[in-house]
Amino acid sequence: MAKDVVFDLIKNEKKRQAEGLELIPSENYVSKDVLEAMGSVLTNKYSEGYPSFEGVGTWKEEQIADEILPNYRYYGGQDNIDRIERLAIDRACKLFHADHANVQPHSGANANEAVYFAWCEPGDKILAMNLGHGGHLTHGSPVTRSAKIYNFIAYGTDETGDIDYAELEKLALAEKPKIILIGYSAFMKIPDFKRVAKIAKEIPGCLLMADMAHVAGLIAGGVHPNPLDFGFNVMTTTTHKTLRGPRGGLILSNGNIASPLKKPEKTIENIPILIDRAVFPGTQGGPLEHIIAAKAVAFGEALKPEFKTYAKNIVKNAKALADGLMEEGFVLQGGGTENHLVLVNVEKSFGIDGKFFEKALDMVGLTLNANAVPGDKGGAFRPSGVRLGTPAITTRGMGVKEMKQIAAWMKRVLNICLGVGKEELLDNAKDELDQIRQEVKDLSLSFPV
Ligand code: DSN
Question: What is the pLDDT of residues 115-146, one digit of tens each?
Fold first, then answer.
């Protein structure tokens, strides 16, 4: 019998990923081991609840097969699952210097929602970054469920592209939020966690939360500060961006660890237990244990010394890419980058919008995404910028030389856009675009996925 057409499409996607360059800063290529764990029989198992947390942070991995420990599960047959989830928890705690890790969130959005649910009551205030300034949808966009439940207040960035800390402080002291959230999906600076922690100290009962989805791999690799080292109580992240694991979420926290079966007093010290209860049964059902296994594998990879080199190279490449783009005349938001991500204001650079540029770059195999810049008049569908980054191309082993080449291709594509004038007319420049497409393909194939 013929195989399902889905497998043809997977094959095509594999080819696309191999023959083009993935510049979306939130994407990466996972290892074969991560893929294998994801595609394993663990997908067959139900495991609502949690393994025992006894000894978290001190488990000896070589003894894990022999240990017999209680669990807090609602289904039998958990011997292997418990051990796998404990490994994921323990490795995550080591990686991020946390007292506790909840590895069950299906995504970053679920992770954020669980933290809000753990700490806030409906109507409570949460101070988070403005979406238009680089924040994330789950940090208070009116189209989200959380924004209908909680009262989000937004701080922004200043003209240098950094967080407007004066505004943040003023809002925090005036509004007394239950959560101050530092997190973003298009921000190129390193936040001053110490300064924010000092502000939060002035507000009784204020939980300090960081959504580090974009830079978690840089934190794990030691090239970016860790908010948990500066007094933050909670850090959420996805596991598939710079961290290079399977698609999923993760919540790290500091405080007391105990059985999630008994409702604890609602104190900041009890936030790990409150979070466990908020993930399950608060906001999710059965955990995806095949994904949790893949998280454990990815965390194990991130604990190795090679990952530090990888993280360092991501940042080095991003700086080289930013410099290359500026040399080609592109205007960068914030004037460059301190992490893995670059935001180009194409409208300000050359008078064309980000969506047009994204489409043209797609035609040559350079994949990135159109993105709003602060104060953007173009809206979500016609933003003025494009966002790109280096996690995936660094995984392929590319370096500074290739970053300059990518910047040069982007300028050639930009010139084609200016030549045709309109997105609908890009086909008129098919030969020129095909020529660049071939060059991109040749380079891509010389750095196999
Ligand atoms: N979609 C992610 C990103 O691209 O930044 C955030 O959720």
Answer: 999 999 999 999 999 999 999 999 999 999 99
* C-beta atoms surrounding 446 within 10 Å: 11
Strand partners, 253: 100, 234
CA-proximal residue: ligand 1, atom 1 (nearest): 26
How many residues does this entry show for the chain? 449
Domain total of the chain: 2
Residue 86 lies in a domain: yes
**Do 276 and 377 share a domain, yes or no?**
no
Q: Is the pLDDT of residue 57 over 80?
A: no
CB atoms within 10 A of CB 142: 9
Q: Model pTM?
A: 0.97
Pick the atom of ligand 1 nearest to 26's CA.
4
Other beta carbons within 10 angstroms of residue 301's beta carbon come to: 20
Q: Which of 334, 308, 304, 297 is nearest to 319 (CA)?
A: 334
- The best mutation among 106, 112, 136, 343 to test binding of ligand 1, ranked by most ligand atoms within 8 Å of the C-beta, falls on 136
Tokens of 68: 């017999």
Enclosing domain of residue 169: 32-302
